[in-house]
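Wait, can you check?
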Amino acid sequence: MADRAEYARKGIARGRSLVVLQYADGIVFVGENPSRALHKFSEIYDRIGFAAAGKYNEYENLRIGGVRYADLRGYTYDRNDVTARGLANVYAQTLGTIFSSVGEKPYEVELVVAEVGETPEQDQIYRLPHDGSIVDEHGSVAVGGNAEQISSYLDQRHRDGMSLAEALKLAVQALSRDTNGSQREIPAERLEVAVLDRTRPQKRKFKRIGGAQLSRLLEAADGPDGSKESSGSGTE
């Protein structure tokens, strides 16, 4: 079992890191991803988002299974019965079964399931490592690559009530830090960004952010002297 765990951890660490942060109006997902087609972040249901690091084909299978679970449960019972906690439990059972099976290799994936609530206090973020355990996270979480170093950076700087521009800037700064402590620049076109925005009037709160809107948000967090400024939610 120790060998299987080490195998899975090494596979996850080879992938690019991603971060999930709470901000005043919801939850933002940020990751370095040069591909425009192979997404790290996806919508699962009305208020629920999905993020994953590791092998794409493996976490894509999990994402599709989660969408099917959510659609079936929402249709059979009620849309409000589809929750991030219930989805995290389903993923935990699947990952745990695969990890303990001697007939197949463990999945090289680490997942984040997030649900935006009516208020920041009702937001839910769950991290699911390769072995199927569930970690209830608050404020910020990082997975993949050098996630431990990024998490430490975020824990020291993340605060409640940040604007979207501020949270996005912090996420990019955390992802830009190399393992040796140096800073590199990640251009906007290499970023994948999505939000669960509680202020959206429609039921579906998930939205991707890119192009000119993303560039404006990145610029909005810096004042003329490079200091951070609040710019509101920044969503359209």
Remarks:
- The CA atoms of residues 221 and 227 lie 8 Å apart.
- The mean pLDDT is 90.
- The beta strands are 18-23, 26-32, 41-45, 48-54, 109-115, 124-128, 135-137, 140-143, 191-197, 206-209.
